[in-house]
Amino acid sequence: MITISQIDFDHEREVAYRRGFVRGLSEAISGFAHKLSEQERAVVDGWFNNELTTWANSSEPSCALPPPMFPKMAEKV
Questions:
Q1: Mean pLDDT throughout 20-28?
Q2: CA-to-CA distance for 73 and 13, rounded, in angstroms?
């Protein structure tokens, strides 16, 4: 069994992965934003902007979980 101390953590790779995640997520949101109601769009925009603010203010950004209604909106698309 692998322990956490045996895992080689590559900080640059992790940051690049998370930046790619946010970039892809922004394109996905913009792709189906026109199908959302104003209230749903406000929730998604608030969550996404919070993600970007966290990244801008931190040298080691972390991804928060999307709001609970986010998976339901994906089903609408």
A1: 80
A2: 30
